[in-house]
Write a sequence for this structure.
DNA sequence: AATTACGACAACTTTTTTATTGATTTAGTT
DNA sequence: AACTAAATCAATAAAAAAGTTGTCGTAATT
């Protein structure tokens, strides 16, 4: 025999994500009522920099790439968005536009939660808002790291940073490098595609990494970290 | 000497579009204050089927493709969105989600107007709302045509319909066919890509059309219209 | 003034995507 | 049961995109 909730597919999804575990039944109801679930296909935009944001996105599964757009084909990649991540949080609390774009690099199952509901729950539930604050904090640290990378490091350090970052996602997503082009990697490092190609080859020659088609295996993590630190 | 408005790029844009000419100064102000302008690059989604819609889009320049998504890689193309067209109108007046996706097939300069502002102006200004209603009416007719195409016509009729429709855009956009793949054309016709390829070849053999790489030139419009009517 | 760090361009190769064609299968119609 | 319409599959061809490499120019650093 099934309860009402067990038959409700959406509800089960809510429950599954750890970050929603801390909500009361009423709060989950609130979220449920003002949410929808969408399949973004590989290549679809989850957000477009500058558009009005009336909701936040919560990634159930799949991966996306979050980036800031500059002039023609000049983007800078901020991060890979993973299951359990929110996208567009800041639109809830302050500016009512998305300040970055993001695009699915695999098919992505995503919740959209209207921001009013989100704001209400945050105000009600301190534990939940603590979690959100923690996420902000993490994002801030990443943004500072990105800034440092761009401001103070040169190519070697930037690519080392980038490789270490992406490699850190490999445990959960072994195929992560296959999903990224050299251009993507270059845009994480903030350098030209050609430079990225050359540097990767040179890192390979020095035995720091191994290039197997699109996959990249880190051979000498310590040295890479050294290069990253040196800048 | 310049007036304030002449220096205000956005304002000039508002003014330019014929459909906003019928607004009073105050109404334009209202729209202005709650709008933003975004460059969607070729390939970017303007809308994603199912996401919350808090604004409507108004195309300033560029072309987009509007489609409904089905199961994996099975979409149906509804129309080509042109400069002067609105996207997402229905989200203002009823359902608060986009009921179709759209993607830029060239770079697109687009206004986003928050729906509250839009609704207010529509209520205030009968001439403007008449224009909007006319647009709805046009869209409805197109939807009926699409339905008829799918329900009652077979391949030949569907492709003929599609060719006539796209060719109708050619005066304003001579490069329109170059922007569409065979898959796109097939998805307008609601048939498989392979069938579309074969039919186009067969139409060419019969002298109905001329295939110059991606461009398609209609040679015998009357006959195509006949085929379209026959279904 | 020399060196370094890198981006930009051009030429080229490889990979991926799109287009094409024929053969086969399925379902509906006559 | 035969016929038709059209999708699906598989193989191939062609076009486009991504990756690679060398050369050169420029701006900052030493």
């Amino acid at each position: 025999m099934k309860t009402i909730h067990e038959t409700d597919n959406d509800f089960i999804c809510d429950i599954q994500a750890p970050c929603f575990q801390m909500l009361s039944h009423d709060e989950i109801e609130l979220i449920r009522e003002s949410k929808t679930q969408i399949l973004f296909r590989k290549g679809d935009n989850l957000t477009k920099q500058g558009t009005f944001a009336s909701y936040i996105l919560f990634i159930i599964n799949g991966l996306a790439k979050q980036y800031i757009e500059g002039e023609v084909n000049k983007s800078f990649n901020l991060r890979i968005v993973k299951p359990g991540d929110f996208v567009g949080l800041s639109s809830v609390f302050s500016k009512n536009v998305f300040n970055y774009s993001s695009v699915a690099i695999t098919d992505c199952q995503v919740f959209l939660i209207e921001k009013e509901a989100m704001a209400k729950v945050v105000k009600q539930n301190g534990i939940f808002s603590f979690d959100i604050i923690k996420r902000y904090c993490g994002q801030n640290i990443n943004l500072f790291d990105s800034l440092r990378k761009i401001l103070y490091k040169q190519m070697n350090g930037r690519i080392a940073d980038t490789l270490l970052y992406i490699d850190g996602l490999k445990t959960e997503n072994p195929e992560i490098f296959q999903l990224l082009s050299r251009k993507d990697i270059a845009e994480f490092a903030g350098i030209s595609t050609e430079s990225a190609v050359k540097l990767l080859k040179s890192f390979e020659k020095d035995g720091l990494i191994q290039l197997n088609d699109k996959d990249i295996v880190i051979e000498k993590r310590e040295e890479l970290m050294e290069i990253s630190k040196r800048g």
